[in-house]
Amino acid sequence: MFLYRSTLLPAHRSFVLSALLSLLSFALASDWIQYPSNGYATMTHYTLPEGFIAACGCAINSTLYPTAAMNQMAYGSSTSYGPACGQCFNLTLLDAFTASPPFHPNTTNSVVVKITDLCPYAEQGWCNATTSRPNAGGEYLNFDLSWPSASISSTFFPSDASYYGKDPGYSDFGVWNISYRSVSCEYWEGWNNSAALGSVANLGYVSCCPDNPMLNSNDTCPSYSDQAGISPYFHAGSAVTIVPMLLSPILPILLSVCML
Ligand SMILES: *[C@@H]1O[C@H](CO)[C@@H](O)[C@H](O)[C@H]1NC(C)=O
Ligand SMILES: *[C@@H]1O[C@H](CO)[C@@H](O)[C@H](O)[C@H]1NC(C)=O
Ligand SMILES: *[C@@H]1O[C@H](CO)[C@@H](O)[C@H](O)[C@H]1NC(C)=O
Ligand SMILES: *[C@@H]1O[C@H](CO)[C@@H](O)[C@H](O)[C@H]1NC(C)=O
Ligand SMILES: *[C@@H]1O[C@H](CO)[C@@H](O)[C@H](O)[C@H]1NC(C)=O
Ligand SMILES: *[C@@H]1O[C@H](CO)[C@@H](O)[C@H](O)[C@H]1NC(C)=O
Ligand SMILES: *[C@@H]1O[C@H](CO)[C@@H](O)[C@H](O)[C@H]1NC(C)=O
């Protein structure tokens, strides 16, 4: 960038810059995983305390209802909000395929979740799928369910204590094979509570959480990281829920300073 500064006129410089930026955003956009409206996925769970503002910036009272984070490359942004924000999915537990032997419950438990958070990309773990390779369950989508949750039964994840209970690790299998289906948020438990819908008002442009966006519809959120020229593989660190909120307003400013 310093080279351009010394050798090009400002007009040329901005032309080169915008050409570079458009090339860059093309390269970035192709890294996001496109997925069908229904299929198989893996499901893990994580702790999102009630009242926390997660990456999308959804209304705080969304945490009173079933919510989930989606793996970064499918979520569509490496920080703050992305196209997955606000979308609702019906998730159905199939089997705990990492159990030994695999566990096939005799119940069919489902939950309709709203996506409010980003499950960060990392080399290891269940959120590590990319367009070119799935996660260790052979899937391109991982739903990280916020659980325990006041709105989801404590027995949502079945086990068989008489068989697996001898091993303490096996009352909670940690990861499940599930089927998912994109559904209208009218089926989400928080739908009738207006305080659970929409974005946190005073966050302004760093929040995007539509009431009822549908997969591939024209009312989904843009990719925050694409817009700000941040790498799709950017790693916000383990403090998923807070760090993006703090970083997001700062990053574009840092980037534009570097480009001057
Ligand atoms: C969710 O999936 C389960 C299992 O297929 C089904 O019984 C239930 O009706 C579905 N719920 C919605 C809202 O689609
Ligand atoms: C993704 O993470 C899993 C562990 O969950 C690991 O076994 C696998 O090697 C990782 N994939 C890649 C390509 O690193
Ligand atoms: C998940 O379940 C489906 C349907 O039974 C099956 O085709 C798929 O292989 C399973 N995936 C894993 C990782 O067990
Ligand atoms: C379903 O499985 C549980 C253990 O996973 C067992 O306790 C229960 O008896 C089973 N119910 C039926 C109807 O088979
Ligand atoms: C919302 O309220 C309507 C009218 O009372 C009811 O039919 C619907 O089931 C409710 N939706 C949810 C998701 O609870
Ligand atoms: C959110 O729910 C809590 C109760 O859990 C309530 O005290 C608070 O007023 C609600 N917030 C809004 C914005 O409605
Ligand atoms: C979005 O799509 C709907 C139909 O799905 C259409 O009626 C509406 O005009 C579209 N809005 C924009 C801004 O393109």
Automatic annotation (TrEMBL):
InterPro entries from the UniProt entry: Expansin/allergen_DPBB_dom, RlpA-like_sf
Keywords recorded for this protein, A-Z: Signal
Top-level taxonomic group: Eukaryota
Keyword Signal included in the entry's annotation: yes
Signal peptide: 1-29
Coiled-coil boundaries: none
Protein name: Expansin-like EG45 domain-containing protein
Provenance organism: Pisolithus tinctorius Marx 270
